[in-house]
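A common beginner's mistake is to predict each chain separately and then try to dock the pieces by hand. The better habit, illustrated here, is to supply every component at once so that their relative placement is modeled jointly.
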Amino acid sequence: MIAATEKGSDAGTLTRPEVEDFLYAEAELLDEWRLPEWLDLFTDDATYQIPPTDIPADASPDNNLFYIADDRYRLGERVKRLMKRTAHAEYPHSKTRHQVSNVRILSQDDGQVEVACNFSTYRTKDDFSNIFFGKLLYGLEVSDGKIRIRSKRVVLDTNGLRNQGRISIIL
Amino acid sequence: MKPNGNDPLVMIDNDRHLFKVSRNNFTDPDVFAKERERIFSTCWLYLGHESELKKPGDFVTRVVGGRSILFNKDRQGNIRALFNSCPHRGSQVCRERKGNAKSFQCFYHGWVFGQDGALRNQPGEESYGHDFKNDPDSNMRQVPRLESYRGLYFLCYDPEAIPLVDYLGNAKEYLDVIFDQSVDGMEVIGGTQEYAMNANWKLLVENSIDGYHATSTHATYLDYLKSMEGGLTNVALSGVGKDLGNGHGVIEYSAPWGRPAGQWVSLWGDEGKKEIDALNARNEKLYGKEKADRIAYKNRNLLIFPNLIINDIMSLTIRTFFPQSPNLLHVNAWAAGPQEESAAARKFRLSNFLEFLGPGGFATPDDVEALEHCQLGYRNSQEVRWNDISKGMGLEQPAMDDEEQMRAFWREWSRRLTGPEQIRGERT
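With all components supplied together, the output reads:
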């Protein structure tokens, strides 16, 4: 159970430390490969998107080719896949370290909280290590004392994935 | 002396139906240098699609065959490819990835060039000889050859190369089937997948037209399709592999997944069905039933030698890649679709693309893992020397999960590297 998803006071509004605690707990779940628990952080209509780096960061995946544009169903399938030995790209699992910083609440209204932060994620697979970095944009939802993720968009600051090769982990 | 230096590049034994490729070809710096000279300096290489340059002044910068290229459209609508190097001291003139410009200025000394690459003016012009601007060497240089087929622009660094249409040869007919999916013209959809693999570029050639590896490498993708309600038809995976000549190869086959080009799956709903039915009816009227069915129900993984892949599968992708060294390649991949397709169809097309393809898909990352582990396995190539590409060699018509289309690549590759008198390298 992640304490960070429990919201004590002022139902519907969040403070920055509460958001930070939540994001740190999310990062921990990812680094420990507790992906089914991580998936539980998302709402039923959630999206997880990574646009390519040669189009505007707010482009739509309906008419642009992304790296990843998952709805909740496909995100669930992604998690299922990554937990299998036959997900060869992540077998054995990479070691990862997700860092989150510069957390800001952009707006909050009626339990809908827009958050931006910086991130860097380190990954080691076989004898190779590399870094993903950029900005994360979250749409969080607060209801029944819980924080959930309605949308997560990963905006990479690299030009493409020349150093990272692929995005087989969750960022 | 390097290991296996005396082995032939490719060893063919027709009697025993054996086709062996030396693992040295994937690691040897001398082979890499020869490829730059005899393949990437002489073959037609894919540069970009006409839809990437919509308006006059649009430009894209790109690295093609190790050269830095400025691909642009001038005021009159002419499409050009210029070497992106200042004639003065060599700096890259255009430093942006894409945009729209009336002229290009090198920031180093301030020389300004027109959309055609001609020198327009330079600071201190009066200090140069009076006809300096008339000297062609004062202009940005055009690539020797630029030709297009069905909106696909190819360049060639060899001024003496045969025309593109002759080079494409039998592959043209497959390109026609793919590009006839649209009546208004195909377009490249916004967003480029730019990624990399720690593997030799020829491993990705083989992998892109490999019908044999799916069950094992892509087990999780197949699990995903099976578990998704309405994601599959009951069509069997079956078809042929062909050598198209000039190094080009193809597999053409039926498959259970949905195709925005004409194979409906129930996931797309009744509205989707109406649209697909209308598309197939239109194609039948335009091209006759046989070709319309081929457009709708056959998948194609097409290799244009040496490094262009057009996969017309559950989506349509244009993919090209270039070696940076023997064990590192860079990939650029795009999605393409008919300009006239509806917003809903476009959405299905892109969704289908991302499920399978690209560095964040459910399949491509496993391909990357396989190719990188091949490259790691070639550490042993002094002792374990040969790759086997023999599958289906004795058959009159090799199947889509045989390897004839890869042998097509290797025959041409080896012909270009060894010169005509040793083309065969055959041992009987």
